[in-house]
Amino acid sequence: MIQQPTLDFLSDLEDNNNRDWFMANKSRYDTARENVIEFTDRLIKLMHKIDPALSPDLEGKKCVMRIYRDIRFSKNKTPYKNNFGISLPTTGTKLGGAEYYLHLQPGKSFIAGGYWMPEANHLKAIRQEIDYNAHDLKAIIDAPEFVKLFGNFTNQEKLKSLPRDYAADNENIELIKLKSFIVMHNLADREIKSPKAAETIAGLCSKIYPLNVFLRNAIN
């Protein structure tokens, strides 16, 4: 489970996002990061049972993203993220493709999955798969439990114009116009601090798993 001091550190970091404060509290960061890594190791073991494409040899420390922000092209020059991001890829240790993502932030944690902003050739393949086999995708995203957990799948960023080679009267055009194919579910602080937090999150990922399979099949 995620410890309260981990959340406290993130809250304090949000209020003191500067190098002097961070260096003075480096030991708190190290302890918080170790908590997140240990939690991720536990989650990986559970997740492999749900999605065999997620390697059981994946190390938690390689899944926890850097807390240092890339400020080179950003107007926001605060040097640190105020969250821990955890990427659980299903195609080895590299990011990209259909995966799972856990975001830990006081009051704003969530679990997500799917494929965010696919590269051009993958996007083309996914759209083609939807055009050919939309029934399979709809069976996943229109299931009552899926909608209850993740909302309306088409309520995410779309093209304003029609994709090349697709007509406006295509019955699946709202799915085909999507730029990303992701879902997310918010997590309360009490849920991530629970002794059963890893099991709860893995259970939610089990509902995302069929979507990831559909997306992986489309690009493979």
Secondary structural class: alpha+beta
Record field, number of beta strands: 4
**What shape does the CA trace take?**
globular
Helix content: 40-55%
Give structural notes.
This is DUF2461 domain-containing protein. It comes from Mucilaginibacter panaciglaebae. It is a single chain. The chain has 220 residues and is α+β, with helices and mostly antiparallel strands. It is 49% helix and 12% strand. It has one domain (4-219). It has nine helices and four strands. Strands 1-2-3-4 form a four-stranded antiparallel beta sheet. Strand 2 (99-104) and strand 3 form a beta hairpin. The model has no long low-confidence stretch (mean pLDDT 94).
SSE arrangement:
Blueprint: H1 4-15, H2 19-24, H3 26-50, H4 60-63, E1 84-89, E2 99-104, E3 109-115, H5 120-141, H6 144-150, H7 173-176, E4 181-187, H8 189-192, H9 197-219
Antiparallel strand pairs: 1-2, 2-3, 3-4
Helix pairs in contact: 1-3, 3-9, 5-9
Brief digest:
The protein has 220 residues and is an alpha+beta fold.
Structure characteristics:
single chain; 4 strands; 220 residues; four-stranded antiparallel sheet; 9 helices; alpha+beta
